[in-house]
Design the sequence.
């Protein structure tokens, strides 16, 4: 695909998605697709945050859920009326992004020089520590209850309501579009080119004068900031920070799945990944369960007949099979594809 | 109980748990030593071993036989199962990723870990009496008390039970045998050669893939032994137990110096004692945080671990 073509793909994708609530308003039916898509937007922002690290810079982060938790709890503490801050949606979201940036920087500073697999384990450990700390510091975080209720956002005097899904839909979609735009520009900037160069060969990048530690640290903080934004948005919608256990390793692996299935380093690919992976999780599995229950096809005695019980197996298999047969993802960036399947392999002489 | 007795009791608890952690850590460290892969699925392999052991108890009625017979059957079949499974996974998944980036096998291993966890869930749903006739597949399962809780110190306040003796009696000889195997046998020598330099080993006529397969087999078998011992010691198994066990063991392996066999044992004991002391003297709810803090601090400040050789990073 040429450049224009790829550019068109992103925006067509977003345009189609933007039309869904309108179509559904014209043709009303029982369960709105738009409602089901909301968590996918959040996972897309999370995936795009991880993509800066894993896709662009080649750093595996197994603890993005922790940054999401940091975002969620920061937002909750900044808005909830039991704390002194009581900021509105916009102020709290802005500050949450800054907090995410800082936490990413603080975790990155001592650990970014570690090699890839060790860094991945450090982020995993961080993810577990954050959960336990949130659970144990219950005087501040309310332990497993979570912080709630939180006030709903307002937009130029318009009050968001839980029962009207369209405003939330467009709010989340606007954030996804903003993040896509930001990441695309980052990717083409000096910093983005440095990231990709580090992913390809860190030693060579250092030799041509790239400050690799600084660039990796920038990636780490920006990724963390995006993940905390995902946490803040989801919290604003739920009206509760949720319990610490909601931000567990499974969420982190889902984000990894999104980036890998979609296509590492390709923004359009990550969006597709979010749609496929997260959509499968929250739409297909759930509806299949409801359908089977309604038709009494699920027997209570067998664990095998509940679709949700196959979740880990399918995510796991997705990771194994993608790594084995299509490491570049469903929708690869041209560059990654060219590296993984060199020209000699593709253009075999006829 | 006096302060001294409490301390002694924690040392005994720490020792038994530490030996089990060490056994799992050995599997991590062997695989890492040879192909630099953090075998993320190792903890879940351990979990599957526990389910295998419980199935044996249920299918053969081992709880109605003499302790020695039950122990012997489980200690033969479970390591074979775990070792074989580990070998198979390497053959099907990791072997094809040897030439790709380092993160590819790690991601693949995370996938295997999830698949194993799901197998554990299904396994717990088998309609067998030991699994509660499959009613609640996800619920923790009771493992029958085959080795007794009887205190070998008689009426003393400090408990040193038959279980503690069993843990040490199984793990210690195994560790000695493993050291002998790696140091003295031809296969062990080949393993060390591959770990040191894969290409050079291949040039010397060593079948590298075969040796790596053997490493997975042995590492998996050790996890199998650990699962039998752990199930008999803790008397409860759970399909998500592998994650926690895996993290503890991995921390132990890193702490001792990943790639080093004595290091893994030392690290395992350290983590066992640290957990026991933290549970007793600090607070149980901070124990996991402490283990992760140890992991991160070791990785940041001394990535070569306690016994690991300080060598330049292989890029």
Sequence:
């Amino acid at each position: 695909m040429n450049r224009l073509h790829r550019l068109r793909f992103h925006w067509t994708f977003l345009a189609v998605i933007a039309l869904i609530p309108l179509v559904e308003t014209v043709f009303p039916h029982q369960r709105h697709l738009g409602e089901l898509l909301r968590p996918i937007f959040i996972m897309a922002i999370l995936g795009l945050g991880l993509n800066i690290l894993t896709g662009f810079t080649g750093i595996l982060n197994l603890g993005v859920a922790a940054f999401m938790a940091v975002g969620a709890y920061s937002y909750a503490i900044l808005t909830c009326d039991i704390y002194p801050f009581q900021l509105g949606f916009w102020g709290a979201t802005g500050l949450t992004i800054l907090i995410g940036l800082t936490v990413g920087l603080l975790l990155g500073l001592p650990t970014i020089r570690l090699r890839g697999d060790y860094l991945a384990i450090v982020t995993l450990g961080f993810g577990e520590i954050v959960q336990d700390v949130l659970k144990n510091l219950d005087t501040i975080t309310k332990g497993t209850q979570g912080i709630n209720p939180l006030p709903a956002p307002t937009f130029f005097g318009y009050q968001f309501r839980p029962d009207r899904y369209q405003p939330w839909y467009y709010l989340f979609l606007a954030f996804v579009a903003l993040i896509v735009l930001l990441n695309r520009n980052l990717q083409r900037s000096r910093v983005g080119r440095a990231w990709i160069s580090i992913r390809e060969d860190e030693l060579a990048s250092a030799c041509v004068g790239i400050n690799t530690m600084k660039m990796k640290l920038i990636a780490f903080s920006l990724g963390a900031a995006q993940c905390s934004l995902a946490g803040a948005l989801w919290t604003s919608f739920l009206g509760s920070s949720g319990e610490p256990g909601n931000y567990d390793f499974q969420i982190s692996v889902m984000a990894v799945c999104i980036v890998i299935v979609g296509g590492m380093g390709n923004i359009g690919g990550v969006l597709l990944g979010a749609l496929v992976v997260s959509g499968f999780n929250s739409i297909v599995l759930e509806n299949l369960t409801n359908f089977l229950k309604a038709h009494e096809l699920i027997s209570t005695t067998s664990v095998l007949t509940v679709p949700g019980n196959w979740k880990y197996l399918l995510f796991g298999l997705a990771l194994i099979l993608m790594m084995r047969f299509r490491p570049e993802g469903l929708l690869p960036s041209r560059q990654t594809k060219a590296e993984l399947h060199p020209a000699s392999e593709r253009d075999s002489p006829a | 109980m006096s302060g001294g007795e409490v301390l002694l009791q924690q040392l005994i608890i720490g020792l038994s748990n530490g030996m089990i952690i060490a056994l799992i850590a050995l599997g991590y460290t062997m695989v890492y030593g040879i192909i630099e892969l953090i075998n993320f699925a190792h903890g879940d392999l351990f979990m599957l071993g526990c389910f295998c052991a419980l199935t044996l108890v249920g299918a053969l009625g081992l709880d109605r036989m003499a302790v020695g017979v039950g122990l012997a059957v489980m200690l033969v079949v479970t390591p074979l199962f775990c070792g074989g499974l580990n070998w198979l996974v390497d053959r099907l998944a990791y072997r094809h990723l040897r030439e790709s980036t380092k993160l590819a096998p790690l991601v693949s291993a995370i996938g295997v870990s999830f698949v194993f966890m799901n197998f554990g869930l299904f396994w717990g749903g088998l309609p067998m009496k030991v699994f509660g006739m499959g009613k609640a597949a996800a619920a923790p399962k009771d493992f029958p008390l085959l080795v007794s809780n009887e205190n070998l110190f008689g009426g003393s306040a400090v408990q040193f039970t038959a279980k503690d003796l069993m843990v040490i009696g199984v793990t210690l000889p195994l560790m000695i045998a493993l050291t002998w195997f790696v140091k003295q046998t031809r296969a062990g020598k080949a393993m060390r050669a591959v770990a040191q330099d894969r290409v050079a080993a291949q040039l010397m006529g060593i079948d590298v893939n075969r040796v790596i397969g053997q490493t997975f087999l042995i590492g998996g078998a050790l996890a199998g032994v650990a699962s039998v011992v752990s199930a008999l010691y803790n008397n409860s198994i759970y399909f998500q137990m592998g994650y926690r066990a895996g993290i503890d063991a991995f921390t132990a392996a890193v702490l001792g110096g990943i790639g080093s066999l004595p290091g893994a044992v030392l690290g395992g004991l350290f983590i066992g004692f640290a957990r026991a002391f933290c549970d007793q003297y600090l607070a149980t709810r901070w124990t996991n945080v402490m283990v992760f803090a140890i992991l991160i601090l070791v990785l940041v400040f001394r990535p070569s671990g306690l016994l690991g050789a300080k060598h330049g990073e292989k890029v």
